[in-house]
Amino acid sequence: MSRGPSDPLLPRNSGEREPDRIAQLEQWDREIVWHAFTQMAEYQPLLIERAVGCELIDAAGRRYLDGASSLWCNLHGHRHSRIDAAIREQLDKVAHVTSLGLSNSTTIRLARRLTQLAPSGLNHVFFSDNGATAVEVALKMAFQYWRQCSEPQPERRKFLAFANAYHGDTIGSVSLGGVERFHAMFRPLLFDVIRVEAPDSYRLPKGIAPGDALPYYLGRFEQALRQHHRSLAAVVIEPLVQAAAGMLMHPPGFLRGVRELTRQFGVPLIADEVAVGFGRTGTLFACEQEQVAPDFLCLAKGLSAGYLPVAATLTSTAIWDAFLGSYADSRSFFHGHTYGGNPLGCAAALANLELFDEEQTLAGLPPKIALLRQHGRRLAELPIVGDVRQCGMIAAVELVRDRRLQQPFPWVERRGQAVCDLALRQGVWLRPLGNVVVIMPPLAISLEQLDKICTVVYDAISRLSGDVQDGR
Question: How many separate domains does the chain show?
Answer without folding.
Answer: 2
